[in-house]
């Protein structure tokens, strides 16, 4: 039945996916394209050509373009007579095309005089197919010339030709300047609703209304439409969405009205013009009926489909979804139907979004720069896809497991059957009173055979270590104290020293930190697990007893709980837990056979756990509190601790990369490889997010300094970080409420504390990639809380980044096109990316405000063991 569900659920979601593609791409009937239209705006530039740089097409290329339009239009409209463009009338005549001949008017008077002189030379040739003359194109709109200057240019040409003369401007310019109307033989309107942000469905009616408005204002002047159209790609302008389907539908609807009303018009335009991207932005490139390679961009008579290739894209999204789902379902026999359905839904949604983003990006004209950006985005997109899938997989396994694979019943074992345990307690410069509390807890253990080895590692002050030595002596022969100076290898060195001095009868080594007070049942409950010879590690969670001291510590406690209630439990299902340096128990024979603790590694505990798995042994995680320690007192110390963990994770992955990736023979399973790569993936995402943020700030500066040249990133690309941020936020809140049994306040506090560590983790990951050694940062206990100024200094980098993002967002919104959706979305991205840095500042300040009570967050219950399910076999509840 479960295998049948594995087949049926993906098929149902795949059917839903294809249905969604079909619904969004249902054919829509539109009026057919006329056999022959009135005219095209004609710019014969091709890829790499640019009239502003005087890079013009050859006469042969212009002739080929006119040949393509022959029989499809009555006329073309040109914009300049510079260079080979002066030959357009002669070449058009050979293809039975009339010409509205244009002369370009710009801001330079000398260039304008030269252009008009060339215009008169062309007119003097007497081409009979030149039916109109256009002096200037939107010169008033661009403010290249004053109205009186343009009138002088118009009159200069009108005096020397009998052909009707005009200039071309949008409708509102004509209404604003009636004096201009007196000096033209006809009015040439530009009706381009996209630039005015008019939604597509209203655009044709809007254009016709503006035409009628000008006609009403000037009833005695003939009116032609010099440009009318819609872009097939580019930036969304308020309600105006550029798309191939909208371009098709707009033009076909307009042509139906124009033909019935007898308008004289020139469609904007014949061919796409990539060079316009520098002057008109992305949308300026895509107004052509034909693309830059002279292929028709859409169907002229058949029903319009939003994405003509939707069937292929739908199939591709399903194939990608199936491949991803196959990987996720590979080891999911304990996942319920709801969990599998959730994974299928998320997988197909992600694959569909990925296909759409790639499709959308590749529809633009690629340059070396856009190609490079595309490659970088592809790599980043793969990383985002993997991260989202990993997050979804953890979400599903945390909520929808039908049963646990590895339940852990409590075993009632006679004292004589229990193994001898050697407890190792490394210490460095720890407060004596705190260590005495730890030793009292160990002395109270309800266990018949154990010893305690206290290794004081390099503490210089006798007043710190001698009281501990004396206290151990009073506790009896079970407690042995070693003061070692010098001792290399940090904590791992101390643990290896203890291993060499361990009682020969000890079968199990247990390790706790110097601040941990253990429960009396710790060893009695967990040591029986070693009766299974495959078990090499038994791990209890880290827990803390000072969460009620302040709001800051309550936040930290909530943040820690997420990993031990969610991540470790799901990892335990595949024998892939991360061993911790406290509350852990290791089979001595395995520890010694593997060479002890790795003194090269700053996180020797997790590194040892990986070597244990690679040797083919198993570890067991028991999610119940058996000991509680102390949390860092300040945010700075909280960050030091997490920096060390993240740095160590990178070094472990690098050191053991061949085994983890399967390039070297080991006994690591696929599930273990998966968790050791994916389990730390979110930390790597933080580091790449830091690089993204720096690039985003640089891009935003460029947008502010060069608004006409630098546009915001593509909307589909800019939305990715927002979607990822939202997905992770929702996941955190849901899982904390359901799995950690946290209140809404605690869930928010945990999320805030986790976000506050993002920059620290990012720096640690990047440092771990490029360095090999890190000084050991001891996490201080019972340190004096930070002062306010110190708290701000501790997060000065984060505070600067908050300011940078806020200033960048403000600067971007000062652009003239700030009303456009992609600019606003990019501003939201900048603000969203500032949130983790703002969280760092806030949490650091909270750590300084020690008077803020923990009740603001709320007390968290202990990770307690479940009740006995039967009188004979009590069971430790696995947390669900």
UniProtKB/TrEMBL annotation:
GO cellular component labels: plasma membrane
Annotated metabolic or biological route of this protein: Glycan metabolism
Gene3D superfamilies: Glycosidases, Spore Coat Polysaccharide Biosynthesis Protein SpsA, Chain A
Domain Glycosyltransferase 2-like: 509-699
Keywords in alphabetical order: Glycosyltransferase, Hydrolase, Magnesium, Membrane, Transferase, Transmembrane, Transmembrane helix
Record's bilayer topology term: Multi-pass membrane protein
Coiled-coil regions, chain positions: none
GO molecular function: hexosyltransferase activity; hydrolase activity, hydrolyzing O-glycosyl compounds
Catalytic activity: a 1,2-diacyl-sn-glycerol + UDP-alpha-D-glucose = a 1,2-diacyl-3-O-(beta-D-glucopyranosyl)-sn-glycerol + UDP + H(+)
Database matches in InterPro entries: GH, Glyco_hydro_17, Glyco_trans_2-like, Glycosyltr_2/OpgH_subfam, Nucleotide-diphossugar_trans
Annotated EC: 2.4.1.336
Superkingdom: Bacteria
Compartment annotation: Membrane
Ranges annotated as spanning the membrane: 7-24, 313-329, 341-359, 365-390, 674-702, 714-736, 748-770, 825-849
Entry annotated with the keyword DNA-binding: no
Predominant subcellular localization, coarse grouping: membrane
GO biological process, one term: carbohydrate metabolic process
PANTHER family found in the cross-reference section: BETA-(1-3)-GLUCOSYL TRANSFERASE, CELLULOSE SYNTHASE CATALYTIC SUBUNIT A [UDP-FORMING]
Name of the protein this chain belongs to: Beta-monoglucosyldiacylglycerol synthase
Naturally occurring in which organism (per UniProt): Caldichromatium japonicum
Lineage: Bacteria, Pseudomonadati, Pseudomonadota, Gammaproteobacteria, Chromatiales
């Amino acid at each position: 039945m479960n295998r049948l569900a594995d087949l049926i659920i993906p098929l149902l979601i795949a059917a839903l996916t294809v249905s969604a593609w079909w619904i969004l791409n249902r054919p829509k009937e539109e009026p057919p394209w006329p056999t022959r239209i009135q005219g095209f705006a004609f710019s014969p530039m091709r890829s790499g050509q640019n009239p502003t740089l005087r890079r013009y097409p050859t006469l042969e290329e212009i002739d080929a373009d006119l040949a393509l339009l022959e029989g499809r239009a009555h006329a073309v409209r040109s914009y300049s007579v510079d260079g080979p463009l002066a030959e357009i009338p002669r070449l058009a005549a050979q293809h039975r095309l009339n010409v509205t001949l244009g002369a370009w008017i710009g801001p330079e008077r000398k260039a304008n005089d030269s252009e008009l002189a060339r215009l008169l030379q062309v007119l003097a040739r007497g081409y009979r197919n030149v039916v109109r003359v256009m002096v200037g194109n939107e010169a008033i709109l661009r403010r290249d010339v004053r109205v009186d200057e343009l009138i002088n240019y118009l009159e200069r040409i009108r005096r020397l030709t009998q052909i009707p003369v005009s200039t071309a401007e949008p409708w509102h310019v004509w209404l604003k300047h009636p004096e201009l109307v007196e000096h033209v033989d006809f009015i040439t309107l530009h009706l381009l609703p996209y630039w005015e942000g008019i939604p597509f469905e209203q655009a044709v009616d809007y254009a016709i209304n503006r035409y009628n408005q000008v006609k009403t204002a000037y009833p005695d002047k003939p009116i032609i439409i010099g440009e009318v159209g819609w872009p097939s790609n580019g930036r969304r302008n308020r309600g105006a969405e550029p798309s191939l389907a909208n371009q098709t539908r707009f033009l076909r609807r307009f042509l139906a009205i124009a033909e019935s009303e007898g308008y004289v018009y020139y469609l904007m335009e014949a061919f796409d013009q990539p060079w316009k991207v520098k002057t008109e932005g992305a949308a300026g490139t895509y107004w052509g009926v034909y693309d830059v390679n002279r292929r028709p961009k859409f169907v002229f008579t058949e029903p319009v489909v939003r994405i003509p290739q939707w069937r292929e894209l739908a199939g591709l999204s399903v194939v990608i979804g199936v491949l991803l789902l196959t990987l996720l379902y590979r080891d999911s026999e304990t996942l319920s139907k709801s969990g599998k359905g959730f994974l299928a839904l998320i997988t197909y949604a992600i694959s569909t979004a990925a296909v759409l983003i790639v499709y959308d990006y590749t529809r633009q004209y690629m340059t070396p720069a856009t190609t490079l950006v595309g490659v970088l985005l592809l790599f980043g997109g793969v990383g985002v896809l993997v991260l989202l899938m990993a997050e979804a997989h953890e979400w599903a396994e945390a909520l929808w497991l039908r049963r646990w694979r590895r339940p852990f019943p409590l075993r009632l074992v006679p004292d004589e059957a229990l193994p001898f345990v050697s407890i190792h307690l490394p210490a460095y410069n720890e407060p004596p009173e705190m260590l005495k509390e730890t030793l009292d807890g160990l002395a109270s253990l309800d266990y018949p055979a154990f010893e305690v080895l206290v290794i004081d590692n390099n503490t210089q002050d006798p007043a710190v270590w001698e009281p501990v030595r004396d206290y151990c002596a009073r506790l009896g022969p079970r407690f042995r104290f070693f003061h070692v100076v010098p001792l290399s290898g940090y904590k791992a060195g101390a643990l290896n020293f203890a291993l060499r001095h361990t009682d020969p009868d000890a079968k199990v080594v247990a390790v706790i930190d110097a601040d941990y007070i253990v429960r009396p049942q710790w060893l009695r409950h967990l040591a029986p697990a070693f009766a299974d010879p495959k078990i090499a590690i038994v791990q209890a969670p880290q827990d803390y007893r000072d969460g009620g001291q302040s709001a800051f510590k309550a936040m930290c406690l909530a943040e820690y709980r997420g990993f031990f209630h969610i991540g470790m439990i799901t990892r335990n299902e595949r024998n892939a837990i991360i061993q911790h340096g406290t509350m852990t128990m290791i089979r001595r024979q395995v520890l010694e056979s593997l060479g002890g603790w790795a003194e090269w590694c700053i996180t020797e505990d997790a590194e040892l756990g990986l070597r244990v798995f690679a040797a083919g042994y198993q570890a067991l995680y028991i999610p119940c509190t058996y000991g509680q320690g102390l949390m860092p007192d300040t945010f700075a110390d909280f960050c030091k601790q997490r920096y060390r963990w993240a740095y160590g994770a990178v070094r472990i992955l690098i050191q053991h990369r061949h085994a983890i990736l399967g390039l070297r023979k080991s006994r690591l399973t696929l599930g273990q490889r998966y968790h050791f790569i994916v389990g730390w993936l979110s930390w790597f995402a933080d580091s790449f997010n830091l690089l993204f943020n720096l690039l985003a700030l640089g891009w935003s500066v460029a947008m502010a300094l060069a608004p006409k040249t630098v546009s915001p990133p593509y909307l589909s690309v800019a939305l990715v970080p927002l979607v990822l941020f939202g997905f992770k936020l929702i996941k955190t809140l849901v899982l904390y409420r359901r799995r950690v049994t946290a209140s809404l306040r605690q869930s928010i506090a945990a999320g805030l504390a986790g976000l506050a560590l993002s920059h620290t983790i990012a720096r640690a990951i990047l440092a771990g990639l490029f360095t090999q050694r890190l000084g050991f940062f001891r996490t201080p206990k019972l340190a004096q809380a930070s002062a306010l100024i110190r708290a701000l200094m501790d997060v000065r980098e984060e505070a600067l980044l908050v300011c940078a993002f806020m200033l960048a967002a403000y600067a971007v919104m000062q652009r003239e096109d700030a009303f456009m959706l992609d600019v606003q979305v990019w501003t939201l991205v900048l603000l969203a990316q500032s949130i983790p840095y703002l969280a760092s500042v806030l949490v650091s300040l909270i750590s300084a405000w020690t008077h803020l009570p923990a009740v603001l967050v709320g007390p968290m219950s202990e990770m307690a063991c479940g009740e006995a399910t039967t009188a004979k076999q009590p069971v430790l509840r696995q947390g669900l």
